[in-house]
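Cross-posted from the bioinformatics board.
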Amino acid sequence: MSARAPILEVSDLRKSYVEGEERIEVLRGVSLTLETGCSLALTGESGSGKSTLLHLVAGLDAADGGAIRIAGQEVTGLSDAGRARLRRDAVGLVFQQFNLIPSLTVGANLAFQSRLAGRHDAAEVARLADRLGLAGLEARYPEQLSGGQQQRVAIGRTLAARPALVLADEPTGNLDEATGDAVLDLMLELVAEAGAGLLMVTHSPRLAARLDGRLHLSGGRVAAA
Amino acid sequence: MTALSALLSHWRAHPVQLAMLLLGLALATALFSGVQAINAEARASYAAAEAVLGQDRLARLVPAEGTARIDEADYVALRRAGWLVSPVLEARATLDGQRVTVLGVDPLTAPPQAGVGALADGDTLADFFTPPGLRFAAAETAARLEGVEPADGLPPGTVLTDIGIAQSLAGAEGQLSRLLLWPDQPEGLRPWQEIAPALRLEEPDAAGDLARLTDSFHLNLTAFGLLSFAVGLFIVHAAVGLAFEQRRSMFRTLRALGLPAGQLMALLLGELTLLALVAGAAGVALGYLLAATLLPDVAATLGGLYGAPVAGSLAIRPEWWAVGLGIALAGTWAAGARSLWRVWALPLLAPAQPRAWARASERALIGQAAAAVALALAAFALAGWGGGLVAGFVLLACLLVAAALALPVLLTGVLLAVQLRVRGVLAGWFLSDTRQQLPGLSLALMALMLALAANIGVGTMVASFRLTFTGWLDQRLAAEIYVSGRDAAEAEALRAWLEPRSDAILPIWSVTGEISGEPGAVFGVKDHATYRDHWPLLAAEPDVWDRVAEGRGVLVNEQGARRLQLSLGDPVRLPAGLELPLAGIYSDYGNPQAQAMVGLERFLAAYPDVPRLAHAVRVAPEEAAGLRTALVDEFGLPPDRVTDQAEAKRFSLQVFERTFAVTAALNVLTLGVAAVALLASLVTLSGMRLPQLAPVWAMGLTRARLARLEMLRTLVLAALTAVVALPVGLGLAWVLLAVINVEAFGWRLPMRVFPSDWARLAGAALLAAALAAALPARRLARLAPADLLRVFARER
């Protein structure tokens, strides 16, 4: 990785959940750094804390300890409203389940987050739709698309808002290998074009190898990759 | 058992949904069975009144038309001629300061079928007719009166005693109401018509006049009960539909694992039946409490309006329990039929389609719109060409069901139209998401719309009626004092005493009998400015009062004219062979029977024996109070014999308010049920909403803001529903005023509108919606992020 300004800095991050009477330590002091324009794969077995780490970075949940800084801004101390603002303004999320808004058309889904963030650019959305192979499908509803098409809408929705950091949780996990590869190619290409950082959770060593770096989690700690 | 426990596990996981389903069904059953309990109690009271002294089994001789009472001399003459007859006096009297019906009998001559012997025999017989005599009444009435013993078989508010004592109590010495005829009479008797020509024979009547007279009142109550039940069923339909929808994948899995479709259906039907029985039993118990609360008002209404005696307390009747449980079962099965059919037709390999339900509902919208148009056309047709009370209620049902079916179509249209015009991204999402929520909420919104429409309709009807009634009372009760003598001599003395002390004495003398074949009463009317200036005429010949005063015309009340289909100039047949052309029609609210008014001279010529007891007295208003006191002092009149104008109006308005107290209570309860329906749907939907809300939350909206939007969504839908409910409610009011009231009571009232009432109701609807939405919204605002994150992890 080149020595550029870090877009994401995580240090000694800890998170635990209580289930019944048992406290489960999910993250036990995880630290990482991601530079602007770089990509990092988060790998590890189920329950190793990958998704939890991603959710904490996205401000979807609050950490028990440690620190997260995105573009130099401290995230861990933010209120609920502050974390919501962070999600709106600084980060973009791509989920395994696509999580499109079923009541909106493809066009409205593509433009949704950029409009929410107040950074809507119709020409950019149209360009992204074209790059993602979605041109002509804008009037359809998500359920009328294939899985690969739906994930491309989710990627377009995220990138249209021009986030500094893209967080992807197994974005190809619901797709077959060929479609998944095609979707990942597109995502990497567009993220690179946007100059954003990418943190991607994946089970696949093959896919992880295509990113700039890789961090392996085991039992809530960073293990040797 | 395994499959059953899998099915029932849904309810263990969703206890609030189960509670809402049971609550909805219980409330629906409670409102329906409560009304049924009131009706059953009232009808049982009528039956007791009709059966007292065996009147439903014994023929009797009654006064001929044109006279109020039988002269005791006729009774003596018949007995002497060998006729086995027994005298009865039925009259109003005041005992311990309370107005009661005194029923005087003679146990020595009463036929066994009259059942009097059971009350007074053996040692008590002498006590019975020796003053002060024994007095019997229903337990409830006896408890309120001193020296009255409880007895079975008597209607409430009636005191049974010896005939002589009754005559004395009622101030009706020498007078009888009827003579009971023994079924077996000695042979060879001189015909009774020759001995007492002033009498006529009345055959036993099992159906009863009271039952007939009050039919329309009870039909109205039943219609309200059914409306409330229908509103409640919306909750059940919504809750059952959602529970089935949520378990769709479970049904598919059970089928895939080898459970036959028939067995699955049987299990689901069994589950519905069990729920219906549990909720139905609770509903019937609630209905009992409701009926017990409302019954005193209904009893007062029936007493005031029809003179019908109804007990103020409620008996538990097994048939009423059976009907309550039956309607709960039928309602649940009906509400679940569509869901059961969808399970039966469920394709085993259908892919999971999150919007399938919404899409199916979109298709259903077209069908709903078509059905709504068809029903609206049917309503128009009935309004134009229908006739009769049943047609009126069918018209009402068509109107309400059409409006309910049209509501989701209208809401979808409005939301879509607004969505196409808004620019904001959140507003666009809000509107599109609201449209997607409509299928899940539409049943609850329909219930709210029906409840609001019923409130507007009935409220408009009652308020229009109140305004008309108050104006009518001012016209009708123009005299300052109303006084009645206890007997003819006292009345004569009253007239003589009042002559120099008043501006005018207006007789209120009447005879009962048939008016062109309809039972009714004929009054003699003095030619006086009180009538010429004030009487509430709806239609009249130009010189109506001259015609009446000169005996050339008769006035008939509105309900009589409608029932007899009389137009001005038509001949009207009155008792004792009198026939006069119709000169005018007047409004006469609160009286179910036909009534006619004839000029006093012509009246007295036709009915010379009319009791001349009651009078209206005109006097300067400032002198009225003094004159009333003087009357009481001079003649020692009991309070009920002298009434001033204000008191009479107060009493009439009291009767009016009580008449509509029950409908007002049912209105409020129906609105409450609709609020519960909304709460039930929102609570159930809130669990299914997370997959739709979580992505928006992830993209930067706080949970609190989402919760506020959810609250706003419910308020917007409730407000739009209230807007739709307004014209429906006004249509309902028109049907009630112009169709149902005319058919049921015989009077038509002008419709007035009360926008301030609508504003209040809309406020109540929004408050109800806000309360219903508050719980799910609060839950969303406080939802742990981990619960929302599960949506992305697909752990749900």
